[in-house]
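explain this chain.
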Amino acid sequence: MKNLGKQMLRTPLQSLFIIVLIMTVTVILVVGGNLWIISGRLSKAYEEDFITIGTVVQKPDTVQERKVWDAEKGDYLLYKDSTYNRYAAEKDMDFPETRYLTEPEKRVYWGSYGPEYVHVGEDRAYSYITVAEFSPQEDYVPEESGKILIKRILGSDKRMEGSVVWFCDHTNRYPEELKADRTYVAMITEAGWTHGKEWETGDKIYDDLEFAPEIMEPTLYTPEGKRIEDPLDMQGIYELTEGFYETEAGQRFLAAADTAALYYETQPVVGTNSTDLLMPFYEQSAWVCEGRYPTQEEYEKGSPVCLVPRTFAENNGLSVGDAVSTRLYFTNAATRPDIAFDVGGGRIDFQFMGLDGKLLTPFEEKEYTIVGIYDYTQLTEGIGRDELIVPLNAVQNKMENIVDYGPMADDNTSFQIPNGSISDFLETSAKYGVDNLVFTFYDRGYSALKEGIENLKNMSAALLVMGVIAAVILTLQISHIYITKQRKRLAIERLMGMTGKQCRNISLAGILLLLMLGITPGVAAGIAVAEQVDVEDMGQEDFDRKYSNLGIAVETSIDLSGQSEGDVRISCIMGVLVAFLGMGLSGARVRRLLKGEPLYLVEDGMSGK
């Protein structure tokens, strides 16, 4: 070591240069090692944080033309409707090569009759179905707008009783004459603006509405989506005669009149295998604010647990742990629940009656324990008023009393796949020829983030390889300068009585000192450099994280600062690696030199070999 010190003093610039090189190589290895660890941390963090889901839309097979008579135009209007020869099912996406984290599900929702609960909007309930007894003010054929007197409204909403409104059998090509001295019954609805000679010669009010009759028929489907034919040929308008309400047609009008109250005592129930598949929860516009989400085990076993909305819980004094009773009496397999059951009202395109003309009766009754209370932001689409969310497997009779049926759509069909597997899924789906299904994926930038992390990992691997090669070359140079070129000194020390082991230890101790002078500051500098590689440097601030499973807030960010901190252990290992290479290669060279005879070493040293 003393001789090495003299050598360093004789060539201070060279020695300083060597120390700087050692420090540089150490920095490269430390940065490479830390970036490797950081990329692994980030990869794991994002793998746990992001969720990739896919939605499915079935394309129509054909277009069917439909003609509807328009009394105002005096002609048929032609409509084109999308039709399906067969409705796609979850089994159509059963690809052997595809691994689903959550299997594809085409969700339905059920109507649960719950008169014992307070429901949103019940206090301002009004009827979407108006069954009216009326008489025309004069004899006329309802092929144009004419005035009728509403004598009686069946049901609880009596607002139109005593009103005189415009009325036309608008879609009937051959309507029958209505007599002023008779009473008729029909389910009436707003149909458009008034029209016809009678209206044109009277006091015209251009904003006058016209009412028209609707055909009262059940809307029931088979589990395969085929409409069940109505056994009764219903008309739009019936003359009210004695005993009419005892007939099949009359029974239907009575049932329809009761649907208004039934509607406001009904709450939708949605079954799923994961709340992540429900877009409002996936987008974080809905979240559990009390309690917890159902567990994976509860979903798989179909445990009788549920999530309830905060307003429903507060209106009924319910808390986490309480039970909610359900009486499922219809299934909607066409639309999302907020279409018919919206907080501000809804649009009902189906009937609550069976083929017998009576109201549907419950087919499954069960109690569910509240495990979580959820809330959602205003104007959130996809959540019905007072909607209960239950495990799909908890409902035994999933397809009973189907009142509406439709194809797979992006708001009722979804699944979850591993992050980063979108391209593989699309290739597989193309292989199996499901070209009638359109897939849309949501990972909100995970693929790009993963690419950035892979680039970071590749860069760290390159730094490690480059650092190891540089360390080998540098340590070979060190051993050449401080060992090979010191053959004469080693020979003299041997001739003076020092053992080979003593000579080796002295030489290696000096080289270790030289290495430590470069490694120590190199490790510290490498840690500092690695910590400057922030997550924003990979463009992560450019991605909206609302589609990740971050928790319960809509605007949520997670602290990733700890993910980019340098790892002291890895840094020290890189420093030890430099020292190991330096000492190992130098030790091998000094041992090889010391195996020779001292006199030969002196001769080689004097000859400059």
